[in-house]
């Protein structure tokens, strides 16, 4: 879902912890997860699987925000006869929904590769089966390209898009709870008479929107992570509903809120930076258009 325009080291670190908490086994809490990963895999373990997201995040963010902005402009033209007309709540909701659908098509393979690389060192166990991670130095996947190619060869396109349904259920409402709160809070804290929000208002509204969106998306994010991690050794889940039922039966309701603290903490600064970059880019483009067409 919501990434970083630029993935900072601390963002990559939190992404790694989030996946392990949600899809892994044996981590009592965030601190225990951090200590266990460091003890078993050293510092490199915190950044495992991040090269693919790093390489694609700029394109992903540009496409999602571009789709959202252009959909708003199209709705403004169709509904009000003016592409620059201030969007109504329904316009923001529709544009957010379209952005959510587009994000899933781009983001599902990226998330799958990241999660497979992070989870291939985890012990897999059931009541009757216990499989240990591959011997160090001989991982299941040798890197992001090898992971993508291996999944594609063994599981086909359906394998690359494993977890897509859960990601749709996460991202479509997630983007609505991302852009709508941002629009509301940005308008609320912008001083009366201002033509556009100032950077401080954008930063604060973006951070609040990010925390809200990620916090509410966490339950389905857990399901998505588990479905995508499934398959490194065995296929444990038959689908979204089966994953939900098995997770609840084995670990209770609290399992669906694993990583919620990390999501909220990560969501504020990354979303602040993202919306600030987005709004400043729009202002720069409008200024260039005005200078070009006086």
TrEMBL record:
Membrane topology listed for this record: Multi-pass membrane protein
GO cellular component, one term: mitochondrial inner membrane
SUPFAM superfamilies, A to Z: Mitochondrial carrier
Stretches forming Solcar repeats: 1-74, 87-188, 197-284
Transmembrane segments: 49-68, 88-110, 172-190, 202-223
Subcellular localization, as worded in the UniProt entry: Mitochondrion inner membrane
InterPro entries linked to this entry: MCP_dom_sf, MCP_transmembrane, Mitochondrial_Carrier
Pfam families reported for this sequence: Mito_carr
Main location: mitochondrion
Keyword annotations: Membrane, Mitochondrion, Mitochondrion inner membrane, Repeat, Transmembrane, Transmembrane helix, Transport
Family affiliation: Belongs to the mitochondrial carrier (TC 2.A.29) family.
Entries under PANTHER family matching the protein: MITOCHONDRIAL BASIC AMINO ACIDS TRANSPORTER-RELATED, SOLUTE CARRIER FAMILY 25 MEMBER 48
Record protein name field: Solute carrier family 25 member 48
Source species of the chain: Gallus gallus
């Amino acid at each position: 879902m919501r990434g970083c325009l630029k993935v900072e080291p601390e963002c990559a670190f939190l992404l790694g912890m989030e996946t392990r908490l949600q899809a892994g086994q044996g981590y009592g809490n965030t601190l225990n997860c951090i200590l266990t990963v460091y003890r078993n895999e050293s510092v490199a373990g915190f950044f495992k699987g991040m090269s693919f997201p790093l390489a694609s995040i700029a394109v992903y963010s540009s496409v999602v925000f571009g789709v959202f902005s252009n959909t708003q402009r199209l709705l403004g033209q169709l509904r009000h006869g003016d592409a620059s007309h201030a969007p109504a709540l329904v316009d923001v909701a529709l544009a957010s929904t379209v952005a959510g659908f587009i994000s899933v098509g781009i983001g599902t393979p990226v998330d799958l590769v990241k999660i497979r690389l992070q989870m291939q060192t985890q012990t897999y166990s059931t009541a009757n089966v216990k499989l240990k991670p591959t011997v160090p130095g001989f991982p299941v996947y040798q890197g992001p390209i090898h992971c993508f190619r291996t999944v594609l060869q063994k599981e086909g396109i359906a394998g690359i898009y494993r977890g897509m349904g859960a990601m749709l259920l996460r991202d479509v409402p997630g983007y609505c709870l991302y852009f709508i709160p941002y629009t509301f809070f940005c308008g609320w804290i912008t001083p009366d008479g201002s033509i556009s929000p100032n950077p401080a208002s954008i930063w604060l509204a973006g951070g609040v929107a990010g925390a809200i969106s990620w916090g509410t998306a966490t339950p389905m994010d857990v399901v998505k992570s588990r479905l995508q991690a499934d398959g490194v050794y065995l296929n444990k889940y038959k689908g979204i509903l089966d994953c939900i039922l098995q997770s609840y039966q084995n670990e209770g309701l609290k399992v669906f809120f694993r990583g919620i603290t990390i999501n909220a903490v990560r969501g504020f600064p990354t979303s602040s930076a993202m919306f600030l970059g987005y709004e400043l880019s729009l202002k720069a483009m409008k200024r260039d258009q005005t200078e070009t067409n006086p």
